[in-house]
Every structure is written in structure tokens, then in C-alpha cells.
Amino acid sequence: MSAILISFATFFSTLFGGLFALHLKDKLHLILGFSAGAVIGVAFFDLMPEALELGSKAYPLSTVAAVVALGFAIYLLIDRFLLLSGHSEHDHGKQGSFGATTLSFHSFLDGIGIGLAFKISPALGIIVAAAVLTHDFSDGINTVNFILKSGEGRVKAFRWLLVDALAPVLGVIVTLFFSVPEERLGLLLALFAGFFLYIGASDLVPESHHVHPVKWTTFATIIGMAVLFVITQIAH
Fold first, then answer.
1. According to the model, what pLDDT value does residue 66 have?
2. Would you say 125 and 113 are in contact if contact means Cβ atoms under 8 Å apart?
3. Which of 10, 76, 104, 217 is deepest in the core (most CB within 10 A)?
4. pLDDT value at residue 170
5. Average of per-residue pLDDT across 145-163
């Protein structure tokens, strides 16, 4: 029951982050800069450490690192050959939806992580939930940004925001019915770390200063990384 209640807190954290992005669309380049730093920060300071900790229980560290690289390569191939790197307005829409889907599935895994942690002990569940809550706000921002950046409207962005906000709740509920070995969850987190590194470095960073002053957007990116570092350190 505690896990379910905390999952609703993740819903509101994600929702508030997305609403923040929706109401500051005129400052989207700065939000994209912060978002790029946040996405990269989530990969480096949250997903990768968790992946290494869980995955190393059954696999060599080199295997976990290879899965991170695999995630980067998979997203690169999808971006170049399926999403076509935004060669048309329609492709931009596909790119935004795929990015939002990735974030939503990551949020679903967050919920699974919370649920499984509570199965081990309430104390561990609360620690994991605290870590999830701290970056769900930026997840909401990132989800909205993917859709707005792809040229889609606020209505579609809000719909995807609701999907992303509900994802961790569903993840927690799912864990009531099955369990996932920690080492396999570690490999999944490693895969998504690779996804996020590509999204942040190859998509959001260039887009954030495409037609805007580099100084402020670069500063926003560094701030995004720093904020996620501090948050994850406090949460852990």
C-alpha cells in the first residue's frame, strides 16, 4: 500500500514538471538547455550507477558498460534510419513521440523499481522512491519538450505528459503480480542510460542553442547536470 501511495507522488511530480514546461514555452531554448543537462545527468548520476550496482551482481562491469553503448547505438540507428533525423515535419513528430515513449517507459521502470524495492524492505523502498521523485520533475519537463520541439501542439504534449505521469503508477501496480531479477533490471537501466546519453548529447544540446545565444543555454545545461547531481546525491 505504501508503494502505491508513493507512486501517486511520482505522478504529481512528473505532472508539475510538464506544466512548468508548457507555461514557459517562450523560454523553450533555456528549458531545452536545462533539459539536456538533466537528461545527461539522469544517465550519468542515476541510471548508470544503479545499472552498475544491480547488473554487476551477475555480469562483469564490462558487460553492463557494453549495454550502455548498445543503447546509445540503438537510438543512433533509430534516429538516423527510422526517425530520419527530422528531415520533414512529419519526421519531427515521430521523433518527439519516440522520445516521449522512451521517457514514459523509463518512468514505468521507475515504478517497477519502487515496487520491487518495497518487496525487499519498506526502508529501501522509500530510498528508491526518493531518488525517483527527485528526477520525475525533470522527466515531465523532458516529455513536454520532446513533443513541443517536434512541432506538435500543447494538447498532444499534455496527453504525453499524462502518459508519462501515469507510467510509474502502473509500474508499481505491475510488481504486485510478478518479480524481475535485479541483475536483469540493471541491464535494462544500462540500456536506457545509453538512450538518454544520445538524446541529451546528440539531440537536445544542439537544438537548445540552434538559434539562441550559446552562453545562456550552455549555462542552463551545466545547471541541469549540477542540479541532477546534487539531487541524486541527497536522495542516495
1. 96
2. no
3. 10
4. 92
5. 81
